[in-house]
Amino acid sequence: MEKKKKSRVVITIIFVCLMLLIAGVLALAAVFYNLRFNQGPARLLAQPLPVEVVPARVTTIEETIGGSGEVLQHDTVNVTSRITSTADSVMVSIGDLVSQGKQIMKADSRVFEADLRAAEERLAAAKTSVEKTTQGLTAERELLKKGLASELEIQQAEIAWAQAKTAQGSSEAELVNAQLDLEFTVFKSPVNGIVLARFVNPSERIQVDQVLFQLGDLDQVYFLAQIPEEMVGYVKGTQHAEVIFPSFPGVKFAGTVEHIDPRTDPKTRTFTAYITIKNPDLKLKPGISGFARIKVEKVALAVLTTAVMNPVGENASVFVVDSDSRAVLVPVRTGLVAGNQTEIVAGLQEGQPVITVGSLYLKNHDKVRVNPQ
After folding, report:
1. In the 3-class helix/strand/coil scheme, how is 69-87 assigned residue by residue?
2. Where are the alpha helices (DSSP H) in the chain?
3. Tally: H helices and E strands in the chain
4. What is the pLDDT of residue 174?
5. What's the pLDDT score for residue 34?
6. 148 sits in which H/E element
7. 215 and 189 in contact (C-beta within 8 Å)?
8. How far is CA 217 from CA 230, 245, 285, in A?
9. Residue 35 pLDDT
10. Which phi and psi (to 5°) does residue 262 adopt?
11. Cβ contact 71:285 at 8 Å
């Protein structure tokens, strides 16, 4: 019995010692882990602070810039009157879609029809006069050859012929004008578009150069995207854009940035990007709201966004590891932020080791140890 008790005591002692050994190993492992990966214990023990670094690299930064806005006609066309007359009938109203060549108004044409007939008669008379004076001039020249006419008579025949030709030219011009005046009693749309404004009603008097209609050309339209002002330096002409509209769910309209208005709205702090969209079926009309996405690509020096301290404002900085394994705080100027990449405009050079993990509690010139990622 005594031997059994002694054996049990020995086993118990061995087990306790083994457990203490395991606990000690785990404690040492915990201390080692904390020293290696946690800055608090490392700082307490005056050990190098653990960090992770990624070198600054030149890379392609891709970002999608978005902005809401609405459709605007690409061009505005004024339909004016060439004649003075009375509006017989007006075929369109504000908001109507019109196709190129469609009749939109008819003016009283009776006076112009009469003017055209009179011009035709004057031209016929002028042609007859030219024929007669031509015959007369030919006859006088024959008589001159025979010595039966004088030089003065020839000159008078030539003058009469020239006057007849001048009168014919004037009559032809009058006929063309009369034809045009009659033609312009019918007003047609010069574009495929929409009626934006109408300034005439049936039976109203119209005058020369009076604006009768204002039409919006819709073969292609503008989408006026309101872009945040901080992105003004990244949106440029010829960039591709994609526009979606709640009015056309599931449909994406491709467009191109044509130009930008760099003036910033003081209330919304946005600027306007004019995006051209082809609109052959005239689906898109002025006033329709939507949302544009403009893809921006830029090759630049960049670091992980998590590495940038104070990214908002003018005091952005990063920690870099110098040759003595110390963390050095370096002020930088940032640019485009795209996902997990931030453009560095100034302050860093390619290849510099930038601290990406562990920079939050670092102090300038702290001794650090770079852990593998």
Report:
1. EEEEEEEEEEEECCCCEEE
2. 2-37, 39-44, 110-145, 151-183
3. 4, 19
4. 94
5. 47
6. none
7. yes
8. 32, 20, 10
9. 43
10. -75, -5
11. yes
Per the CB < 8 A criterion, the answer to whether 302 and 342 are in contact is yes
The span from the CA of 285 to the CA of 147, in Å, is: 82
pLDDT digits (tens, 9 = 90+) for 105-133: 999 999 999 999 999 999 999 999 999 99
Cα four-point dihedral sign 119, 125, 127, 130:
negative
| Phi, psi (rounded to 5 degrees) for 137 | -65, -40
Helix 110-145 / helix 151-183 crossing angle, nearest 10 deg: 160
Contacts of residue 75, Cβ cutoff 8 Å, sequence gap at least 6 = 191, 216, 217
Residue partners of 257: CB distance under 8 A and separation at least 6: 235, 236, 237, 238, 239, 240, 241, 273, 274, 275, 276, 294
Beta carbons of 178 and 115 less than 8 angstroms apart: yes
pLDDT at 16: 60
pLDDT score recorded for residue 358: 76
Low-confidence stretches of the chain (pLDDT beneath 70): 1-46, 311-313, 373
pLDDT tens for 34-58 read 444 455 565 666 678 787 888 889 8
User: In angstroms, rounded to a whole number, what is the distance separating the alpha carbons of residues 203 and 93?
Assistant: 16
**C-alpha span between 140 and 132 (Å, rounded):** 12
User: How confident is the model at residue 113, as a pLDDT?
Assistant: 94
The alpha carbon of 12 is separated from its chain's Cα centroid by a whole number of angstroms, namely 82
Burial 134-170 (b: 16+ CB within 10 A, else e): eebbeebeeeeeeeebeeeeeeebeebbeebeebbee
Per-residue model confidence (pLDDT) at position 169 = 94
For 311, which DSSP code? Answer: -
pLDDT at position 14 is 67
